[in-house]
């Protein structure tokens, strides 16, 4: 009887495996078509120089960022992506809230995927200033808010890359030794208090 149950389970799983294989082949075909579309696009190639950014993420950012020169600043580009905090001004009071989430969901998701790619490649990105800030923020604000804040910083990096037409430079991501020393001293005083 035990053999019959295993045989029934194998027969039930077989169509699922066929469907998965079909989906994988369709995804590969779409990736080939996407690769052909962006093969001559300089901006998509520049975006792929960022560690953890692949063809799909670079193409998504490129599709929703037609001309980077439309945006006067990195802050305005982050606002376009829906990564800027909500701000309410009332006389002397200024309140900041959640991200506005205005703008294309796909673009915002692409920036989050960039952060996730950097987190996935921690063995290469661990020394980045961005990752130091992410880990420090994660302790106090949680994972979700930290990822969104880091995605906002990634939008500034993407803005600079596309504006200057220069590839991602990992050497600019290493923190200043003075910063590390100051943060260590600050942590010591906070823990001592």
Describe what you observe in this structure:
The structure is a single chain. With 193 residues, the chain is mainly alpha-helical. It has one domain (41-192). It has helices spanning 2-38, 42-47, 55-64, 74-81, 105-120, 122-125, 129-141, 143-164, 177-192, and strands at 85-90, 93-99. A two-stranded antiparallel ribbon has the order 1-2. A hairpin with a 2-residue loop joins strand 1 and strand 2. It is globular and about 65 Å long. The chain starts with a helix and ends with a helix. The mean pLDDT is 86.
Output the structural class. mainly alpha
pLDDT < 50 runs, ≥5 residues: none
Biggest pleated sheet? 2 strands, antiparallel
Count of DSSP E strands?
2
**What is the domain tally?**
1
Could you estimate the helical fraction of the residues in percent? 55-70%
- The backbone outline, from C-alpha atoms, is globular
Note the total helix count: 9
* Estimated share of beta-strand residues: 5-15%
Distance between the termini: 68 Å
């Amino acid at each position: 009887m035990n053999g019959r149950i295993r045989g029934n389970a194998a027969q039930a799983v077989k169509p699922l495996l066929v469907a998965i294989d079909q989906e994988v082949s369709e995804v590969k075909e779409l990736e080939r078509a996407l690769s052909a579309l962006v093969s001559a696009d300089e901006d998509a190639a520049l975006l792929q120089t960022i560690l953890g950014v692949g063809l799909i993420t670079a193409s998504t950012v490129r599709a929703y960022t037609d001309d980077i020169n439309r945006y006067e600043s990195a802050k305005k580009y982050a606002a376009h992506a829906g990564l800027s905090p909500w701000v309410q001004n009332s006389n002397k009071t200024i309140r900041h809230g959640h991200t506005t989430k205005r703008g294309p969901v796909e673009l915002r998701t692409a920036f989050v995927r960039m952060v996730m790619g950097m987190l996935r490649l921690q063995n290469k990105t661990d020394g980045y200033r961005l990752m130091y800030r992410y880990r420090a923020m994660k302790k106090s604000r949680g994972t979700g808010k930290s990822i969104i804040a880091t995605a906002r910083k990634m939008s500034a990096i993407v803005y600079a890359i596309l504006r200057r037409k220069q590839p991602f430079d990992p050497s600019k991501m290493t923190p200043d030794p003075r910063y590390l020393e100051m943060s260590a001293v600050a942590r010591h005083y906070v823990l001592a208090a």
